[in-house]
Specification:
Layout: E1 3-4, H1 11-21, E2 34-36, E3 41-47, H2 49-52, E4 73-79, E5 82-89, H3 91-101, H4 109-141, E6 143-147, E7 156-160, E8 168-170, H5 183-196, E9 205-208, H6 210-218, H7 220-225, H8 240-249, E10 255-257, E11 261-263, E12 271-273, E13 279-283, E14 288-292, H9 296-303, E15 316-322, E16 327-340, E17 346-350
Parallel strand pairs: 2-14, 8-17, 9-10
Antiparallel strand pairs: 1-15, 3-4, 5-16, 6-7, 9-13, 11-12, 13-17, 14-16, 15-16
Helix pairs in contact: 1-4, 3-4
Length: 351
């Protein structure tokens, strides 16, 4: 049976240290910002933006104004699944830590404690890495698919937020064909669809890879729309700044490059792109959140008075010790799920 380590490890200090060291770890914090809740479930009201916009009517004097219509509301709810990862310290390290507990100075004891703090940070980063994969999974099709060891290694559970079919498209000519593709025309058409579902608002930005930006610099349509050279010819390649000018001139939302790589979820450790190279994702306002609840162990630590309940929400770290064999386990844990508040605010293109 494992017990929490609360003597040589100050739990609030450990949690605070881990959060400080991982505060910039969430790749999509600007797209799906964190939202902390007090439970392991969530329920949100999704208001139809189009139906919330109305027009008043003129009336005669001494008559009552006509009644308006309440906007359509869709309830979004579900459970937030737990996730985590642990790292083990063996008997030798535990023996050194126990000497520190007994007041016996021993070289290596402090190093073993440092190893626990390092393990806690790495385990918390592992939690954020998995959340990042869940976030891009959601952003690619409006569905989060989560592996579940409870129902079997080949099974999974999904949260489907019903991304409109018209918001998942493929360019008629892929942009890798820089001579024949028409990215400016494509983006203008896709933004027209986006505006029709978002009360006339364009995406805030388009997420793209560096490869896409490079191809736009070589694209014939972009070059033909860019300023000419002094002798009247058309540049063979245009800069990233000029590409941005061309897109801006056609009221195309700005592009944000996402080239982050993380270890794959298959335990191979292979660094893999989060945003696939040939995907372009349009992001609108109030798109969604990453919901963080209170993890099971954080709840127990708060219940035992070892952690303030106000600090229990979000990613936490804790240490347990066990016997047979003697060991310490350092765990990073969270209850978290990315969700779409407004599926109409997401647009995904394969280019």
């Amino acid at each position: 049976m494992a017990t929490y380590v609360t003597d040589v490890i100050n739990v609030p200090e450990l949690v605070g240290y881990v959060r400080e060291q991982t505060q910039n770890t969430d790749v999509f914090a600007g797209v799906l910002p964190a939202l902390e809740v007090d439970d392991i479930a969530y329920e949100l009201q999704n208001i139809d933006t189009r139906s919330s916009m109305q027009v008043a009517k003129y009336r005669s004097w001494d008559t009552a104004p006509p009644l308006g219509k309440r906007p359509g509301i869709t309830l979004i709810g579900g459970e937030i699944p737990p996730l985590g990862l642990s790292m083990r310290l063996g008997e030798k390290d535990l023996a050194r830590i126990n000497k520190l507990r007994a007041g016996v100075a021993e070289e290596g004891g402090a190093a073993s404690l440092d190893a626990i703090y390092n393990d806690a940070v790495n385990m918390a980063k592992a939690v954020y890495n998995r959340i990042s994969w869940a976030q891009i999974d959601l952003l690619l099709d409006g569905i989060v698919t989560i592996e579940s060891s409870i129902i079997g290694p080949t099974n999974a559970i999904s949260a489907d937020f019903s991304l409109p079919g018209t918001h998942v498209v493929t360019a008629g000519t892929l942009w890798s064909d820089t001579a024949a593709s028409t990215p400016v025309t494509n983006l203008a058409a896709w933004q027209k669809v986006f505006r029709s579902h978002n009360a006339g608002a364009n995406p805030l930005f388009w997420m793209v890879s560096s490869q896409i930006v490079s191809e736009l610099g070589l694209n014939a349509q972009v070059r033909n729309l860019s300023p000419s050279t002094a002798d009247g010819g058309v540049r063979g390649i245009v800069t990233e700044q000029t590409v941005a000018q061309v897109l801006s001139a056609h009221r195309i939302a700005p592009m944000v490059v996402v080239d982050d790589e993380l270890p794959a979820t298959d335990d191979s450790g292979t660094l893999t792109r989060l945003l696939p190279e040939r995907k372009v994702i349009g992001v609108g306002s109030n798109l969604g959140n990453t919901i963080f609840g209170v993890s099971p162990n954080a709840s127990m630590l708060a219940g035992n008075g070892q952690l303030a309940y106000s600090d229990a929400k979000g990613v936490v770290a804790f240490v347990e010790e066990s016997i047979r064999p003697a060991a310490m386990l350092t765990t990073g844990e969270a209850v978290a799920l990315p969700i779409l508040r407004d599926p109409n605010a997401l647009f995904v293109a394969t280019v």
